[in-house]
Amino acid sequence: MKMTEEKIHVETSFSSLIKKNEELCGDKVAIRYCDQFCILVLADGLGSGVKANILSTLTSTIICEMMAEGSTLQEAVDTITATLPQCQERGIAYSTFTIVQIYYDGTAYLIEFDNPAAIIMRRGQCLELPRTTRMIGGRKIRESSFQVEPNDFIVVFSDGIIHAGVGTFLNFGWDHADVEKHLTEYCRSTDPAREVTRILLACVNDLYQGKPGDDSTVATAKIVPAAEARVMVGPPEHPEDDRKVVGRLLSATGKKICCGGTTSNIVARITGKEIQIENLLSLTSDVPPMAYIEGLDLVTEGVLTLQKANEYLHECAQSPQFYEQFLLTKQEDGAILLTKMFLQDCTKIVFMVGRSDNPAHRQLAYSTISLRAKIRMIERMAENLKKLGKIVQIELY
């Protein structure tokens, strides 16, 4: 395994327009966050509809999963060639693809087969990447290796983006330079990845007059500084570990979050800082009040707040519309602030979970706030965060 020093993290977003009169998109994006790198694959299946969807799903999934597990590009492409069903009409098994592999030390690899060239934006300008060409499994593959910096954008897209406007606003559709110009004019380095995806796809939809003539997909990776948020949940099993765990919490390069009354008392005792409790409990919230400890970014109640935050994360992972609306809400309680912090301010989250059961709950073996249930809840929260593109680690103490 390639060892890396974490200098950057990766924020990703993708969205598609489905060809008019089709129910399934012929493009597919697969993303995996691994211990050392993030991999993003965009595949465009031959044709449209069900056949194209099958081709692109197989292609993106096989490449993403195999390379995430350490296989070479050669092995992944050979597997695709042997696996993809042939199109009966044309006698070929065909799906184009783009692969972006970004290590957390800043090293990035770009691999392209017949898709439009990816666009790399840095400080408002598009970079010209040198690309080499080689044949793999009878396919002409273009490759590039480069170093990324915080606030870089890597934008990949299917050829439906280039075809936008053909026969309507534009005689021959956009060319690559038009897409670059649009991105540099309307995207800012402070934009999240999802905004860059939205900006480009909205323009494409306008050019198609709301009736896409081809499946059109945009996937964006934004490079952000590495910031490891740490969340302390529950007291350690052995009290002599209290100081070690609190020290690890306070050394986080990102957000420092404490969940639970007993936990916050441990932090206050070790740091010598006073706990300040929120004065009023909102009548519109079913979440207990928050607290404040100097040096921490957020202090909340424990299980009830985490349960509610996990409900929000689950909805965000299921529905992009809910995600966008949630970020706009003006309500504030511990669960909302915790969820927003995870979504907006964190790329990697380490849960430091104490294995000491609360004495008040020891006789409630099947209580929703038993130790076993608490750990399982954190695991479910981690699953939802991973679906939302976060790197998650759970440590037990």
UniProtKB/TrEMBL annotation:
It comes from Holdemania massiliensis. Residues 9-223 form the PPM-type phosphatase domain. It comes from the Bacteria. This is SpoIIE family protein phosphatase.
